[in-house]
Amino acid sequence: MAKTLTIGVLALQGAFIEHIHALNTLRSSEHISDVVEVRTKQELDLVDALIIPGGESTAIALIAERCGILEDLREFARTKPTWGTCAGLILLAKTAIHTKKGGQQLLNALPVTVSRNQFGRQVDSFSIKLSSQCLEHVSEQAATGVVEPFEYVFIRAPAIVSVDDLEVEPLVKLPPGHGQTEASEDGLLVAVKYRKMLGTSFHPELTNDTRWHRYFVRMALSQEDSAVVALAA
């Protein structure tokens, strides 16, 4: 029997409901046995993979600390498949710049430097359609050789301004000119993969396109399969 996954969505603050809806639409086509809202260590212990949603990264970290699960989240991110979107990307990162006065708690798991609110305030939000090679294998049109562009939604979004480990795999870069720093002249990095982690600056859950959620589910399944093979060796 094929392995199935219980996938958790951190439900302390932010756009967790939208992620849950996206995952539930995939349950009949992907190997998802359950989707769990995670607020406690007990709920975190139930899941095989975790999504940390967009929202307010400082608030999510403070609530996690008050709930007593911040250290558990750090351990989970180091050992199990974890995807951070927007604020979740900031939390996953080892380094964040342009944070609020006094800084903020991070999970210190993903070896990148992120610039918080890189693209400005809420009024500066935007979307852009891009073709992404990394989504080719999860696209329904892949067999035809034609893959539709994905609509990337950025709302007070961070950007990855430095990759701090050679194992970090860049996945998506914006075209030149998007962003507020000189780095935007070469195009800002907005999605990366590192071992069992996925980090994205944008909000895929705010579209009806579930390819990024499918990408994460299959990434998590491949990690589970690798772990089984390692144990059997």
Question: What does it look like?
Answer:
By secondary structure, this protein is of the alpha/beta class. Helices cover 27% and strands 27% of the residues. The chain has a seven-stranded mixed beta sheet, sandwiched between helices. Strand 11 and strand 12 (197-200) form a beta hairpin. The longest helix is centred in the last third of the chain and has 22 residues, at 211-232. Residues 228-233 have low confidence and may be disordered.
Fold topology:
Layout: E1 5-10, H1 16-25, E2 32-38, H2 41-44, E3 49-52, H3 57-66, H4 70-79, E4 82-85, H5 87-92, E5 93-97, E6 110-115, E7 126-130, E8 150-154, E9 159-163, E10 169-173, E11 189-194, E12 197-200, H6 211-232
Parallel strand pairs: 1-2, 1-3, 3-4, 4-12, 5-6
Antiparallel strand pairs: 6-9, 7-8, 10-11, 11-12
User: What's the order of the H and E elements?
Assistant: EHEHEHHEHEEEEEEEEH
What is the β-strand count?
A: 12
> Which class best fits the helix and strand makeup?
alpha/beta
Major sheet, described briefly? 7 strands, mixed
Amino- and carboxy-terminal Cα gap = 20 Å
> pLDDT average, as an integer?
88
